[in-house]
Amino acid sequence: MLRLFVAIALPPQLKLKLSLLCSGVPGARWVDPGNYHLTLRFIGEVDEGLAADIDQALAKIRAPRFALALAGVGRFGDRMLWAGVDKNPPLAHLRDKVESAMVRLGLEPETRRYAPHVTLARLRNAGEGKLQSFLAEHALFRAESFPVAQFSLVASYLTKGGAIYEDQADYPLR
Ligand code: 3AM
């Protein structure tokens, strides 16, 4: 079995820039900067056969290249902190294509609204005051846009020390 998700990788410079945001919140488990990514679709545990079908389906997707700019920070409740993404119709288009390809393969549709983000930290009993200062301090965060020329199928291995991600395949955009 493989635990899979579909994601866009970030350039090293951007990972460095994001990592500089990550301090000042006790109770935050900061994501290893090498693991930063933008998830397009979480898939979950699948067997090798379905993984091969998923790979084939992703390889058939035709979508244009686009520019992506990260901007702002936010939270999902008490669970995590993230960096946001500027409104981006080509990203939404790509995500929709990935979603329909997965549903055509028989995977459960994703019912939650797509909220593109780069997870910076998972939270455990983080103080509300520090969380709010983090959000206020970085509200104007903005990174230069970067060209997205491909997306990837990634395997996630959960270890005691955190997740290890392994790129399985990359799919070019035109
Ligand atoms: O890209 P982020 O960090 O937001 O939280 C997991 C991570 O998201 C998410 O998939 C990404 C790669 O692991 N994830 C893990 N389990 C999930 C689930 N059951 C999930 N997303 C939705 N449903």
Descriptive account of the structure:
With 174 residues, the chain is an alpha+beta fold. It has one domain: Cyclic Phosphodiesterase, Chain: A (Alpha-Beta Complex), CATH 3.90.1140. It has helices at residues 12-19, 48-59, 89-104, 128-137, and strands at residues 2-9, 28-30, 37-46, 66-68, 70-76, 80-85, 117-123, 146-148, 150-159, 162-172. It has a four-stranded antiparallel β-sheet with strand order 3-1-9-10, covered by helices on one side. The chain has a four-stranded antiparallel β-sheet with strand order 2-7-6-5, with no helix packed on it. Strands 4-8 form a two-stranded antiparallel ribbon. The structure holds ligand 3AM. The site of ligand 3AM has 6 residues, from strand 3.
Bound chemical compounds = ligand 3AM
Report the CATH architecture: Alpha-Beta Complex
Strand content: 35-45%
Distance between the termini: 31 Å
Structural class, from helix and strand content? alpha+beta
- Which residue ranges are poorly predicted, with pLDDT under 50 across at least 5 consecutive positions? none
The CATH topology is Cyclic Phosphodiesterase, Chain: A
**Total of DSSP H or I helical runs spanning 4+ residues:** 4
* Widest sheet: strand ordering: 3-1-9-10
CATH top-level class = Alpha Beta
Q: Major beta sheet, specifics?
A: 4 strands, antiparallel
Summed over residues and divided by their number, the pLDDT gives a mean of 98
Helix-strand sequence: EHEEHEEEHEHEEE
Report the oligomer: single chain
- The value of Rg in angstroms is 16 Å
Beta strands, count: 10
Question: CATH superfamily membership, which one?
Answer: Cyclic phosphodiesterase
Helix share, percent: 25-40%
What general form does the structure show?
Answer: globular
Q: Give the tally of structural domains.
A: 1
